[in-house]
Amino acid sequence: MNTFCTDNPDVIGFEPRVFSDERGFFMESYRRDKFHQAGIPHEFVQDNHSFSIKGTLRGLHYQISHVQGKLVRVTSGEIFDAAVDLRKSSPNFGKWVGLILSAENKKQLWIPPGFAHGFYTLSPQADVLYKTTDYYDPAGDRCLIWNDPVICITWPLDPQVPLLLSEKDKQGTSFKNAEVFE
């Protein structure tokens, strides 16, 4: 498994070795020793699966308690995945990182604890799978508004497709008023 850098050194990209032939392909999508060697000592406790149609934007989600690190990958379709550093002690506080993840490119993104996370579906549909380092806690759930003018994520929105947001995501908090991490 190869690693690659993003604009934030704590957000790490992974490209698994893929063995393909006329039958299809095989790859290791997660191997604990390789992730530990890459500087990710966390253990994963929960797997999540999200299905979305084109134009769906989910996020930017994070938990203030039971803080989760996430390992994100796409098994069908394509998304633009984004993470915002909410750690006040970080030199990248308030900055975002974005990457296209797809079933075709098989890239994965490690988003450490202390980040808000969201994605926009680029393909007609997409299946997103992600491992988390802690269990979901509804009481600690928070949402940063997806289009915050301070953070200014450059979402690759398709103007021909209506933007689909949940009520929760429409009501996200501004970066200025968000609960953040030390």
Attribute tags:
2 helices, single chain, mainly beta, 5-stranded antiparallel beta sheet, Jelly Rolls, globular, 182 residues
Write structural notes for this entry.
The protein is mainly beta and 182 residues long. It has a single domain (43-177), classed as Jelly Rolls. 5% of the residues lie in helices and 41% in strands. The chain has two helices and 13 strands. Strand 1 and strand 2 (12-15) form a beta hairpin. The protein is globular. The termini are far apart.
User: How many structural domains are formed by the residues?
Assistant: 1
Task: Outline the low-pLDDT stretches.
Answer: none
CATH topology: Jelly Rolls
Strand and helix order? EEEEHEEEEEEEEEH
CATH architecture: Sandwich
**How confident is the prediction overall: mean pLDDT?**
94
- Counted beta strands: 13
Helical content band:
under 10%
The gross shape turns out to be: globular
**CATH homologous superfamily label:** Jelly Rolls
* CATH level 1 class label: Mainly Beta
Report the end-to-end length measured between terminal Cα atoms: 32 Å
Q: What is the CA-based Rg, rounded? A: 16 Å
Helix/strand-derived class?
A: mainly beta
Q: Major sheet: size, sense and barrel closure?
A: 6 strands, antiparallel
